[in-house]
Amino acid sequence: SGTFPVTVTVTDATTPTNLTASKQFSLVIAPALAITTTALPEGVVNAAYSAPVAASNGAAPLAWSATGLPSPLTINATTGAITGTPGASGTFPVTVTVTDATTPTNQTASKQFSLVIVSGLAITTTSLPNGAVGLAYSAPVVTAGGTTPFTWSATGLPSPLAINATSGAITGTPGAAGTFPVTVTVTDATTPTNLTASKQFSLVIA
């Protein structure tokens, strides 16, 4: 691409001296139209999704289209933004195409993406088992959905019980009896925004 000074010369067959004419032109070669977005962010089932797709070069206005988007996601034909609320999880091969207004022939560029839609994050453990003073306690807390790795935390656990930040297991040897309101929180690695789920439990130590 660039702007090139071009001189064109023509010579005829006039005799005894051939006639010659020259003319200078400025030849503009525009850069090729290209989609510059490198990847589509992950989405979450039943959560609003929005991802812009951008292009460089070409002549405005641009016209966008896409195939392979999970319903009801769509691409805005004018802006290139992909929006909607996905209803199912999975990995979807998506092809995005943009066409510009270059004349006399419109330029077109296409790019393939892998769009990952994850299921919503949820703590599936229904209750914490009872414990007893002076006896070793161990209770796993499990989750469904989301993207690994997970990070766990908890509030309200009777000392010295603690939750493993990596596995979600609650362990320790309780030193006092009682009924303790415990809130467990898990955060996943979904990008660009991590998903978080919390659940409240009633932990009985006899």
How would you sum up this structure, described in words?
- By secondary structure, this protein is mostly beta strands.
- The chain is built from no helices and 19 strands.
- It has a four-stranded mixed β-sheet with strand order 4-11-10-7, with no helix packed on it.
- A hairpin with an 8-residue loop joins strand 18 and strand 19 (about 195-205).
Comma- or semicolon-separated keywords:
206 residues, mainly beta, 4-stranded mixed beta sheet, 3-stranded antiparallel beta sheet, 19 strands
> What is the number of E strands?
19
- Write out the strand line-up for the largest beta sheet, numbering strands in chain order: 4-11-10-7
How would a crystallographer describe the biggest sheet? 4 strands, mixed
Global structural class:
mainly beta
Which percent band covers the strand fraction? over 45%
Helical stretch count? 0
Mean pLDDT: 94
pLDDT below 50 for ≥5 consecutive residues: which ranges?
A: none
- Report the end-to-end length measured between terminal Cα atoms: 79 Å
Order of helices and strands: EEEEEEEEEEEEEEEEEEE
What Rg, in angstroms, do the CA atoms define? Answer: 31 Å
Overall 3D form: rod-shaped
Residue share in helix: under 10%
What's this model, at a glance?
The chain has 206 residues and is mostly beta strands. The protein is built from no helices and 19 strands. The N and C termini lie far apart (79 Å).
Topology:
Layout: E1 2-11, E2 20-29, E3 34-35, E4 43-44, E5 49-51, E6 55-56, E7 63-67, E8 74-75, E9 82-84, E10 90-99, E11 108-118, E12 122-123, E13 137-140, E14 143-144, E15 151-155, E16 162-163, E17 169-172, E18 178-187, E19 196-205
